[in-house]
Amino acid sequence: xNFVNSCPFxxxxxxxxxxTVLVIGACGQLxxxxxxxxxxxxxxxxxxxxxxKKSDNDVFQTGxxxxxxxxxxxxxxxxxxxxxxxxxxxxxxxLSATAEKMPEFAWKLNMDGLFHLLDAARDMGIVKxxxxxxxxxxxxxxxxxxxxxxxxxMDPTTVYGISKLAGELYAQYYFNRWGVDTxxxxxxxxxxxxxxxxxxxxxxxxxxxxxxxxxxxxxxxLKPGTVLPMLYMPDALKATLDIMHAPAExxxxxxxxxxxxxSFGPEEITAAIQKHIPSFSSTYEPDYRQAIADSWPxxxxxxxxxxxxxxxxxxxxxxxxxxxxxxxxxxxFRIDS
Length: 337
Fold this sequence. Notes:
Layout (H helix, E strand, L loop, with lengths): L2 H4 L3 H6 L5 E4 L4 H14 L4 E5 L13 E3 L5 H11 L3 E4 L5 H6 L1 H22 L4 E3 L2 E2 L23 H20 L2 E3 L1 E3 L1 E3 L12 H11 L2 E4 L7 E5 H13 L11 E2 L3 E3 L1 H9 L6 E4 L4 H6 L8 H7 L7 H14 L7
Parallel strand pairs: 1-2, 1-4, 2-3, 4-5, 5-7, 6-8, 8-12, 9-11, 10-14
Antiparallel strand pairs: 11-13
Helix pairs in contact: 3-9, 4-6, 6-7, 8-10
């Protein structure tokens, strides 16, 4: 996808191609594809990728890469001074299920890392815009689960969700008090084919496609009927780039925007795959991640994103499934039995 041409603020996108961009946490699922998309807009040498360890993905073999632990504030400041990025995408975080195993470290990484960047944006005068993703994990059991509104009950039950809710409020605080141009989206589960599943509760919806093309069966850690909001990676990239390239006056929410693409349960994604691979099957054995999923919304109301800066997804479940299977086959995934 040509993200410059698809951007609703295409003229602004083209004007900004001379800028330098920093991606923190670039080697994760979202970061890998976002780095690739940004380099398509700004050029390889104008997008600095960074993470605690360099991935062997081809994306990171071209263009600058810096080893960065976001908890190392002096190193962050050094990189900002060296490259002078006007935009920073801060993606480094410990995800939901993984964070529950290391709650103290998850809080430190997720919150201190955000503070280090917000403080640098406030104090150094280099960074003009900060993107920091939130998540549906910021909601909780008392949140309205169907058509979850932009504003409503938010009582997260995981350390990941708690850190995301706190981060939303601090992002708004830095905007209101010091004028730091913070922008954020509450991502649902993200599904993509270019990287392996991470440590998220919704990552079964990535693994299931891999399993469909390798073993022909999937063992799901969620039970049937566990409907969760999901978003295909091309749509996630489009939304992220759109909000960052939108004129500041169109970004009217400085906590985080609700974002939606589709909602389904594991049995529905299984049925979608069976349209292409009839022999595919799933079994279900819920584990501790079931309780996390049960505390999250099922269907998201993202009308504010649609109204304020023109958000609209391109993919539904069937279109995503066909595209996922086609691209994974091209990458060499095949039934081995």
